[in-house]
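Hey,
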Amino acid sequence: MNQQTKFIWADHLRVAATIAVITVHVSASILPLYKQIPDLTWWIGNLFDSISRFCVPIFVMLSGALLLPKDTALPDFFKKRLSRLIYPFLFWCTVYIVNYFLFHTKNIQTLSANELYTQLVHQIKNQEISYHFWYIYMIIGLYLIIPIMGIWIRKASESALLYILGIWFVGLLLLENLGNGVEIYNFIRYSGYLVLGYYLSKKEFRFKTSRVALILIVTGILVTILGTYLITVYQGKFNPFFYGNTTPNIVLFASGVFLYFKSLKFNPDKKSHISTFINRYSYGIYLVHVLVLTHLKFSWRTIHPLLGIPLTVISCLLISALIIYVINKIPGGKYISG
């Protein structure tokens, strides 16, 4: 079994995570309107958002599962992996900034070159180019440690890996209460997902994996949905605590989704062209989809969210994929599109 066939489940999982992250960003606009909109509308937003919250952890876990086992020389790793992240990121940063100046800056014609430069520097320095780019900053940081982490991971015993994962999980419970005031917070909480993805991809369990995976998924979703509702009712305003990427419910949820896809038997001779297409351009889709959403301008007021959210997700996915596909066909476009 070659490497591509062995990890075909990972390709399908990446597609699911790509769709999920778009769903999160589509449904998110409804949730802060608690008590300002009909209860059913809010619950629909809560449902769609909750069932999609596995997306970011899965992206990181896949990086751990696919990259940590590889013994790649540092120059080759940075050339093949890191450059594929950074060049498209810089390109789309530029596109988002141009879009901001064209559509969100009043009287742009009257701004001096110095004022434009000041706004540009401010956005880059404060990570304000687009709200979803925080993930790129985070994943680039993790990529910098993967070659070093991989040396230890590949030699570590199962007990050592479980010890690290245990320390990480307990640390999440403590750090979640401290929040982003801790400078190393993001690094610690997301680096654990690298190890978790590696461990779950390697481990062959004695029990029926799919059954346990479904229990984890259902538990994670229920805690997320009900926890979000209860804490929101208690505080009288929307509280996204249970949506956090490293809250225990999301860790369990993402682990269940990971194990479930791993347990599925995919026939490599019967690949879905749509799935293959989305998987190939998933990074570019992630980079561009928020820009597409800003121009689609989904509103629950114009179409019922039970229909509007899925339609907007599908529309955004197709438009984003088409944009990346077209750019890839331009000479040199594959280096900057994502």
